[in-house]
Amino acid sequence: MKIVPRRSIERGNANHGWLKTFHTFSFASYFDDEHAQFGCLRVLNEDRVEPHTGFGTHGHREFEIFSYVVAGQLEHRDSMGNLEILKRGDLQMTSTGTGIRHSEKAYGEEQVHFLQIWSMPYKGQLPPTYYTRHFTDEEKKDTWARIVAPAGESGVSDAREASGPAPVHSRLSLYATLLSPSASLPHAFPTDGPGALRKVYVHIVQTSGYNPEAAGGATVRVSGDGASVELREGDGAYIVGEAGKEMKVENAGDRVAEILLFDVE
């Protein structure tokens, strides 16, 4: 198993006043060919948007775009006629397909903190679709809640609003947890798919605040097959291991850690 940390202080970052953002992968004016994508995972931005501001109406096509709301409220509008106010625990998925236009803005009087995630679809020219899901903190406490999964899999509804994971037209599953101090969770690399090796990306949500110099807060240890890496808030890790092998994510600090785990191809 190979675990390569992606440190928060090495991410692309910018403070535009209305927007404070970190880019795990190349995005906008930030480019690093060593961090362009990981499997089908193309964008992982950690954004904080000030009240009464946001991303104005703009277009996208041929990406699966989802928002994971950490704090505050996010207003989503799009050319499909959707208008929604998203809050903590909400996950919004837009399969842009042949093309959509949308806007994302902070709603209310508080800053909104959310993760903007893009993946590359396995099929082009799909019709644009929109989904929302909600997962409580209790559903994520000390367990892997599967919040995104490939469309068409058993238990994955294609309804606009439903329980269970949101469908994505990518070879990707996303899990979230709120891991208590001293608690740990195993995760087995999937055995389906091509080849003997599997890819996982782990991200520790930077809940303690925006600091482009360093992240504090939670401490997480990722280990498996003799490899081990310690991560702080805002850090991530590229992990490659054999299908069927098990890795472990452990809260090594003194506060709850909010963690996202991506299984990708």
UniProtKB/TrEMBL annotation:
CDD domains from the UniProt entry: cupin_Yhhw_N (cd02910)
Family according to the record: Belongs to the pirin family.
Superkingdom in the source lineage: Eukaryota
InterPro entries named in the record: Pirin, Pirin_N_dom, RmlC-like_jellyroll, RmlC_Cupin_sf
Pfam family, one: Pirin
Membrane-spanning segments: none
Domain Pirin N-terminal: 14-118
Name assigned to this protein: Pirin N-terminal domain-containing protein
